[in-house]
């Protein structure tokens, strides 16, 4: 009996047949990769299995597929781990391998990277646009200025984040996580002279910066810890706080509305969020500005639907209590705003909780200093 069963999604556009699943037995130890298993099936059972691969070491980025429904590099996923995942996720022994989502399939596990991924990367102008005459010799950049962009530079263009992105599923025109992380690589680079123009372009695009819904899928699947969503949030902070770009997608207004409401009430006054977002953060402006009024009118059917279904109650919509300790929230705001430079608060920390012992040690250190 084979050590593992790989259930591969097969599709050959030339055959005229619909896609189907086919099982292959694989005889390999658990530490070998899913890619090793696919290559064994291809050399031993069926030479027509199509998979794209090269380095077999998580470097070239060509073997991204969906394993048990989760996007990953086939060469970077061990057979033993994949089987454990199949058991825990689906209660099955077979490891399913299928092409990535959000891409047209060319054959079996090979997707059309040009049609989606590379097209989107080209959209963000993926090269430096320096201003002025070039220096006689090379550009000299302080090392610390480059640290900020090393995370986005680690991308191997595998497209796993694109394949997993939930916003892309809903809006295939979304520029997407990999291309936006690439955009940060240039907007964070001091040699580039078009930061504001690039940010304005991405903020104004209806499929741009504000199309991400913070689902974390790209952060979870990226094999190189690029954390594309974090790069998108950095771009948003630069667009709103550094350049004050008031985009027609109300991204700027939405952020201002959130901040202003929390400062005022301590919790989110949801019925004010929409009008304030259209009014660049201000409730009054939303009621006098013609373009805000137009957007508000267009949203009326959704509001009426919410009232009818009981999701929104008129009393709750109108009366929103402040937190009893609201002054403390204001104090935090005041403290942050009195800083000369913007504080980069990383809200997306990934890691493990400290053990009790580690926590106690950290506390002990804190009290000594
Ligand atoms: S966090 Fe944003 S970019 Fe990342 S997968 Fe989710 S919607 Fe897409
Ligand atoms: S950001 Fe990560 S998942 Fe996305 S293409 Fe780059 S390496 Fe792959
Ligand atoms: S074969 Fe190169 S990343 Fe998997």
Write the layout of secondary structure elements.
Layout lengths: L3 E7 L9 E7 L7 H11 L19 E4 L2 E4 L5 H12 L4 E4 L6 E3 L2 E2 L2 H10 L19 H11 L6 H5 L1 H5 L6 H11 L7 H10 L12 H5 L6 H15 L8 H15 L4 H9 L4 H6 L1 H20 L4 H5 L7 H12 L18 H13 L1
Parallel strand pairs: 1-5
Antiparallel strand pairs: 1-2, 3-4, 3-5, 6-7
Helix pairs in contact: 3-7, 4-7, 7-10, 8-10, 11-12, 11-16
The chain binds iron/sulfur cluster (2 copies) and FE2/S2 (inorganic) cluster (FES).
Brief descriptors of the model:
alpha+beta, five-stranded mixed β-sheet, two-stranded antiparallel sheet, binds FE2/S2 (inorganic) cluster, 17 helices, 47% helix, single chain, Fumarate Reductase Iron-sulfur Protein, Chain B, domain 2, binds iron/sulfur cluster, Ubiquitin-like (UB roll), 369 residues
Written description of the protein model:
The chain is 47% helix and 8% strand. The longest helix is centred in the C-terminal third of the chain and has 20 residues, at 290-309. β3 (64-67) and β4 (70-73) form a beta hairpin. The chain has three domains: 4-111, Beta-grasp domain (Ubiquitin-like (UB roll)); 113-130 and 141-249, Alpha-helical ferredoxin (Fumarate Reductase Iron-sulfur Protein, Chain B, domain 2, Orthogonal Bundle), CATH 1.10.1060.10; 260-342, no CATH class. It is an alpha+beta fold and 369 residues long. The model is unreliable at 365-369 (pLDDT under 50). α8 crosses α10 (228-242). The N and C termini lie far apart (62 Å). Residues 53-56, 58-63, 73, 75 line the site of FE2/S2 (inorganic) cluster. One iron/sulfur cluster binds at residues 155-161, 177-178, 181, 221-224, 226, 228.
